[in-house]
Design brief:
With about 375 residues, this protein is mainly α. It is built from 16 helices and seven strands. Helix content is about 60%, strand content about 5%. Strand 2 and strand 3 form a beta hairpin.
Length: about 375
């Protein structure tokens, strides 16, 4: 006998796709990709990206706001309009963050206090991760210091070396927790990726400052490249363990009343209870029950705190295959190749990054 797809409990591609779209529309598909802001400013295009951001912010302001913007920036930069290495790597990233913060402050001067909570909420995240996490806090703190010390080579080298050490130790501990202490999650993956990407360019900048030998950058790059390969395997296994799906049950036929009608004892008992219970009794007698409505939904769980109810119907025995297929769809959505490429620069690109020396010069009105 030849077994058909249905007898093998194989779901259709349409069923898998529909469940993936349900998760996507509910915004529960995890995103562990390196934040685009990091990939933009930690690249050979950093200087052009910073100039573009600076010009865009100025064009979006009135003349008075432009003056306030320039004055505030000059104060944050220690009274200088020029920033050494300002168009390069982590310094360009620090200036980008500063530009956005100062622009928000300038615009907020004419806004109501009702807008302030939203601005505070935005500051709680940096490059897709929480700024209150240990990795996020280290990155956020370092970037906040850079604009004021970038023109002081000794202070810059000393501060960068200190934060390099802190971030290295935290990333090692974070990696250990994920791989050996069952602390794997989408959030922890995203934190590690953001931290590793930032740390690599922190080390690259130390080479520019002649603080560390070139070999230390190459060693760190290889370490993060192999570390990412291991974490991707572990994260995929984590999704296989956690994704659970139950089908929405097929609608049942409406119950028909028996000739004897509803039993008087139950009706009398419920009528003596609260109004809510009384309404439930009346709804039940009319053929409606809230619990029955909930039971008509299926459930899709991707990981703790990421789940959604759905009404996709399929044979219950298809759920295990659906779960495996969803893992593949989710991993394909992550664009892991781009993440890997961040840690395997071609030699020419890597050499060009090390030779970057662009400064940033503010334009005066």
């Amino acid at each position: 006998m030849i077994l058909t797809g249905r007898s093998l409990c194989l779901p259709s591609q349409a069923t898998v796709q529909e469940l993936f779209f349900v998760a996507r529309d509910a915004s529960i598909i995890p995103d562990i990709s390196i934040d685009p802001v990091l990939t933009t400013f930690l690249s050979l295009d950093s200087s052009a990206a910073l100039q573009h951001q600076y010009a865009f912010l100025q064009r979006s302001m009135s003349s008075e706001q432009q003056s306030a913007f320039s004055l505030s920036l000059t104060g944050e930069l220690g009274g200088s309009s020029r920033v050494t290495y300002g168009g390069v790597g982590v310094v360009a990233l620090a200036l980008s963050v500063l530009f956005d913060q100062v622009a928000q402050q300038v615009r907020a001067q004419g806004s109501t206090e009702g807008d302030l909570p939203a601005q505070k909420h935005q500051a709680k995240r940096i490059f897709g991760i929480s700024s209150s996490s240990r990795i996020g806090w280290i990155i956020h703190s370092y970037l906040g210091l850079i604009p004021g010390i970038a023109n002081n080579p000794e202070k810059m080298a000393e501060t960068t070396e200190l934060y390099d050490t802190w971030l290295k130790l935290e990333l090692l501990d974070h990696y250990e927790r994920m791989t050996t202490k069952k602390r794997m999650s989408s959030v922890s993956m995203q934190q590690w990726l953001a931290g590793a990407a930032f740390h690599l360019h922190l080390r690259i900048h130390q080479v520019r400052l002649n603080s560390v030998p070139l070999g230390s950058v190459e060693s760190l790059r290889r370490s993060y490249k192999s570390g990412l390969d291991r974490l991707v395997q572990d994260y995929t296994a984590y999704l296989h363990r956690n994704i659970q799906e139950t089908a929405a049950p097929r609608p049942r036929k409406p119950r028909t009343r028996t000739s004897s009608g509803p039993r008087q004892t139950n009706t009398f008992s419920n009528l003596t209870c609260s109004g809510v219970e009384n309404r439930e009794t009346l709804n039940s007698s009319a053929g409606y029950n809230r619990h029955e409505e909930v039971s008509t939904l299926g459930l899709l769980v991707l990981e703790p705190q990421r789940n959604v109810s759905h009404n996709v119907q399929h044979h219950p025995c298809e759920s295990p295959v659906i779960q495996q297929a969803l893992v593949t769809r989710i991993m394909n959505a992550q664009d892991m190749e781009r993440n890997r490429n961040f840690f395997r620069y071609p030699e020419k690109v890597f050499d060009s990054l090390l030779r970057q020396r662009d400064a940033f010069e503010m334009k005066t009105n």
